[in-house]
Specification:
36% helix; two-stranded antiparallel sheet
Length: 256
């Protein structure tokens, strides 16, 4: 896969984010992208079943949460995200689009977003990573996010080897992040708030990297039910709140 870049001027100091490519991820994912100078979409790591790589959550018209899921071909439990292929034995595109129409057709901005989602899903993809990269890139375009986005297996092919031979006394995922930061010459690393129990700011500082976490503020927007449900797919935000309101919500976070 060739590198694809959405350009930004990072200046002398570089703030980096590293995320696995998720399927139409939640608002906080895009807040992290917008807060960084450069984002690495890293798929050269193990696929974890039950995560967010091939599924996400939307609301049904009765207010319950429903998963939209891209079916995958059978693969080794050690398979990398980049190796996991989409199963086309069933018409999953038709199923997902029908679900969105059924549950969001009355949303205020359905007509604006649905053609975009349909266009993304109806393209041909071999791997789940290819689909997710396309969807994330398209959402960034809609939201006017200018962060430089880089993804390529070849670009970071040495990282996993460095992780194996690293002398750092820490978890492999920490070694991976530090290795990528050094490749990109980043001195500031942003992580999702869920990483506060996994990563030590002191350890990153000892490697010349400032670590901060993106914490989404308490936000709400009008949904199709009475009780607000947070952290759904970005599709829920865009269809209910629209692109302009969602752009404003991108700034509703703090760095901790």
């Amino acid at each position: 896969m060739n590198d694809r870049v959405i350009t930004a001027d990072a200046g002398n100091s570089l703030t980096l984010g590293i995320m696995q490519p998720y399927f139409f991820p939640y608002l906080g994912y895009f807040q992290l992208i917008a807060a960084a100078d450069k984002l690495v979409l890293y798929d050269n790591c193990q696929f974890i079943k039950g995560g967010w790589v091939n599924r996400n959550r939307l609301l049904q018209h009765n207010g319950s949460v429903h998963y939209i899921t891209v079916p995958l071909k059978r693969h080794s439990h050690k398979a990398l995200i980049s190796e996991v292929r989409i199963y086309d034995g069933i018409d999953w595109r038709k199923s997902i689009l029908a679900n969105i129409r059924q549950n969001y057709s009355k949303a205020d901005f359905f007509k604006d977003l649905y053609p975009v989602v349909e266009s993304v899903l109806m393209q041909d993809y071999e791997t789940i990573s290819q689909l997710n990269i396309a969807s994330i890139s398209e959402i960034c375009r809609i939201l006017g996010i200018k962060t430089e986005i880089v993804f390529s297996i070849d670009r970071y092919k040495s990282v996993e080897e460095e992780v194996e031979k690293s002398e750092y006394d820490c978890k492999p995922m920490v070694k991976r992040i530090i290795s990528i930061c050094k490749i990109e010459r980043a001195d500031h690393y942003l992580n999702a708030i869920g990483g506060t129990k996994l990563y030590s700011q002191e350890f990153f500082a000892s490697n010349g990297i400032k670590l901060e976490f993106v914490k989404t503020n308490d936000i709400s927007y009008t949904q199709m039910n009475d009780e607000f449900v947070p952290n759904l797919s970005i599709l829920d935000v865009l269809m209910n709140a629209g692109a302009e309101r969602t752009k404003m919500l991108l700034g509703e976070y703090s760095l901790v």
